[in-house]
Amino acid sequence: MIKRNIEDLWHIDARRNFRIYKVAAQIMGVWPFTCQEKFSKIRFFSLIIILISMAAMLAHDMLSNCGNIDTTLESIVFVLSALLGIVKITLPRIYWRNIESIIVSAAYDWSTTINPKSRKIMEKTSLIGTAAFILLLGGSLFISVLFVLHKVMLNFRMSSRNLTTQYVVFGAGCWRSNLPISINSIYAVQTIQLGTMQLCVSGNDACYYQIISYLSGQLDILNLNVEELSHSYDRKTSPIDEFIRRHNCLLRLCWHVEDTYNFVVMCHLMNNLCFTMMIVLTTWNENKGLGYLVIFGSITIFLYGQIFLYSLGGDVIKTKTESLFHYIYSCPWYQLPTSERRKVLLILTKTNYPIHFTAGNFYRLNLENFKNIVKFTVTLFSFLRLSLQE
């Protein structure tokens, strides 16, 4: 109850900034201020059960060896996506204190920042984070709708030709042979499963990017404050001490993000790789319909768009932590007293090592490595197609 009251004390801009984030996180049961409550746990485990049921149905298809190669590979990818969804909502819940620290810090900044330039930076990054949140989550749900409609149109075409073949939303649907259930009920169940998977996968990505947007804005504000280091020194208060405190705080928040999400990003990269191979194996035949290619092409672009946002976020944080060193060195620190100059030396030493977000603690997330991912994917794509054509 005490933690819930903390939100009531937030500035109105802080509540508005995290409004969409809060709704999505509460649906997933990972909102850090309520995640230990009974109903939050019920929502969390309900989503886990839905994702497990999705993976179990598709695993049954694969073990039964029914359907063709297309439906088998489709089942493999959706099983991996369901497992990825489980990972993506489980780890933020395990590391809920890290997320709580970040959100509390953001709410405090909204309540205490009065500098017009700083407020403008915060409003700009908040807008970017919210736009990315809506784009990621809305885009994934839109693709899900396209996927379901594609299968509905296939069934409509089959029925117009008086054929008995019926497609389910994903997989071969062999598990339904022993169940007295209509095709409409199956579509309803699988649509819920698909929507849940997209919420857990893309909703988590959207939350991640909104956090990155906040940290990016705070690093911009820290760079802005560097210009005032020598001008605001009055021998009674030291702006350098405040700078060091704030810099340490942001470093701690960045490490919270790295600890919480590095394994999630690695799983996402592996899932994308599997999905790319599935597309190659299922679309190398030129007889595929245009609708099939459009659906899987859209999904591919969207998935790599997500990886691009991960890489862009990592690159932005790296660049802005690097720029701190140059900002500090360029300011007139030599006009400060000797004791303050020693502190500047400490800051220069610490800012000489930028923050790197990683996938699995070994692959750095930046735009250069995103290019390497795309190059590797294209090379793998070409190799597999040539192998299949032979």
TrEMBL record:
Entry's localization field: Cell membrane
GO cellular component: plasma membrane
GO MF annotation list: odorant binding; olfactory receptor activity
Transmembrane residue ranges: 42-59, 71-91, 127-149, 261-284, 290-310
Presence of keyword Transmembrane helix: yes
Principal place of residence: membrane
Cited InterPro entries: 7tm6_olfct_rcpt
Record membrane topology: Multi-pass membrane protein
Keywords (A to Z) from UniProt: Cell membrane, Membrane, Olfaction, Receptor, Sensory transduction, Transducer, Transmembrane, Transmembrane helix
Signal peptide per UniProt: none
Protein name listed in UniProt: Odorant receptor
Family the entry assigns: Belongs to the insect chemoreceptor superfamily. Heteromeric odorant receptor channel (TC 1.A.69) family.
BP GO annotations: signal transduction
Coiled-coil portions: none
Taxonomic classification: Eukaryota, Metazoa, Ecdysozoa, Arthropoda, Hexapoda
Gene assigned in the entry: Or70
